[in-house]
Design goal:
Number of helices: 11
Radius of gyration: 22 Å
Strand content: under 5%
Number of strands: 4
Strand order of the largest sheet: 1-2
Distance between the termini: 43 Å
Largest sheet: 2 strands, antiparallel
Shape: globular
Order of helices and strands: EEHHHHHHHHEEHHH
């Protein structure tokens, strides 16, 4: 969409929008910025929580498969994920001190449900699945931030359009195939994390879980850096009186075979470390991540992925109210709103079901 290009109103010569909120402010006005910002950063934080939990589950699954390999398939191999969450949080604290995202320069089947389940439960699970699908399409809120890291000479907006087309097509094909295979293999007992349902061949499952872990360790920072940048920018003005300490750059030199230096500011060290610790604690408190992610995806999908982008595009393209294109967009927006609402219902029902037997700070496989 043109609303996601480098500038407004002209996609090439217009004023550059560096973030999602910049585009909302330029095209829809300041009154929309607050609600879009709250939803965007809440969603990004929720993704960080989900990554923490998923990484712990994948790591624990590797440990559990090793136990099965050693003791047999019938062995009682219970593994706690809390220690893995703490380790993941510690690693992300270290990675959070790396340069900001903008310093990076890159290029470019419900019918199979078991008869023992109540009809209402099946319906809630379908709605929750819609929320999880919506959650997977979170690229829109980071599209401008990522586009800002692309190098010229190729126009960033043109490169991002092509990448977005490939990404949407590939993601749709991947998740559709994954969903069909999951229900074909497990039916109504399909787990939220598919890899926890497979134990043979052990080596293949371990490789898959390792790939997930590596992906999430790096992906965590993609979402976290946007939150870090927003927090540090907003607090920089408040801490101007203490700038001599909080914003001063300190350099630590490490003497090895080669000289290495590490630069940090107290504000970055304290804020990012505290935020990652808080995120890790929340993840440990609420380990039933599937319903939570579904709820976050449900709430944010319609406004962030549909409503704001469509309205920004119509403003930029000068589409008048009542035009055929305007009517088509309104119908599309309404349909997506319905999807968001029903998936919210399913996700809330899933959370209530998990709360009946969930234990805070306790995640076992």
């Amino acid at each position: 969409m043109e609303c996601c290009s480098t500038g407004t109103p002209d996609p090439v010569k217009g004023r550059r929008n560096y973030t999602y909120m910049d585009a909302v402010r330029a095209l829809l006005g300041p009154k929309h910025v607050l609600i879009s910002g709250i939803m965007q950063y809440s969603m990004l934080w929720g993704i960080m929580i989900g990554f923490t939990i998923t990484t712990a589950i994948s790591t624990a699954t590797i440990k559990r498969s090793a136990c099965f390999h050693e003791k047999g398939a019938n062995a009682k191999c219970k593994v706690s994920g809390n220690s893995y969450m703490l380790a993941f949080g510690a690693l992300e604290i270290l990675l959070s001190q790396f340069p900001n995202l903008e310093k990076a320069k890159g290029t470019i089947k419900v019918a199979m449900a078991g008869e023992d389940l109540a009809t209402s439960t099946k319906i809630w699970q379908v709605f929750q699945a819609l929320g999880n699908i919506a959650f997977s399409y979170t690229y829109s809120m980071l599209l401008l931030e990522i586009q800002d890291t692309l190098k010229s000479p190729q126009a960033e907006n043109k490169a991002m359009k092509r990448v977005t087309l490939y990404a949407i097509g590939g993601t749709a094909l991947f998740y559709t195939s994954l969903g069909c295979m999951g229900y074909a293999a497990f039916g109504a007992d399909v787990p939220g994390n598919y890899l926890t349902g497979f134990y043979k061949p052990l080596w293949l499952v371990d490789i898959a879980n390792l790939a997930v872990i590596i992906h999430l360790i790096v992906g965590y920072q993609v979402f976290a850096q946007t939150i870090f940048a927003m927090n540090e920018k907003s607090l920089a003005t408040r801490w101007q009186a203490h700038g001599s300490f909080f914003n001063k750059i300190y350099t630590v030199r490490l003497q090895c075979k080669q000289d290495y230096s590490f630069q940090f500011t107290p504000s970055r060290l304290l804020l990012r470390t505290g935020f990652v610790i808080f995120t890790t604690l929340v993840a440990m408190m609420f380990p039933f991540f599937n319903a939570i992610l579904g709820l976050l995806g449900s709430i944010s999908f319609w406004p962030l992925t549909v409503y704001f982008p469509l309205n920004m595009y119509m403003v930029q393209a000068n589409i008048k109210r009542g035009d055929s294109t305007w009517i088509m967009f309104q119908v599309l927006s309404l349909l997506c709103l319905v999807v968001s609402l029903v998936s919210v219902i399913g996700s809330v029902a899933g959370m209530l079901e998990h709360l009946k037997h969930a234990q805070l700070f306790h995640i076992n496989l």
